[in-house]
Amino acid sequence: xxxxxxxxxxxxxxxxPLIDVVFILLLFFMLTSNFIVENGLELNLxxxxxxxxxxxxxxxxxxxxxxxxxHIFVGENQYNFSELNRLLLKKETAGDLALVTxxxxxxxxxxxxxxxxxxVRKINGEKMVISTEKLAGGVNETQ
Length: 143
Prior knowledge:
Elements: H1 16-32, E1 47-48, E2 61-66, E3 72-74, E4 77-79, H2 81-94, E5 99-104, H3 110-124, E6 128-130, E7 133-134
Helix pairs in contact: 2-3
């Protein structure tokens, strides 16, 4: 005998379109986001309770790093004072120098930092920022 079987109703949720939409959204956000990568130089910045976050146009800004061994870096390249002077002069004449940020290790002698600041101020005037880390409390009193 040939009995007819009752038709079974498919009771499931097809998530294939959902996976496609999530993948496309992930791809969209990955392609449109900006990744800000700090240089890999390990610095212990000086601490300050009055440090402010700087919102800057990073296109025309120059960041100068000074490590605890008193080496001057711009990006991944190491410079001496005369090379730094030439680099700043070249960027200033090209109009590519809006602001100079100085990031120096807390163990760098003040005299060395002043020498670097003098080189920057000769070319770029007063448009310079010294970077610090913000302390999470009150005033840092060490006596």
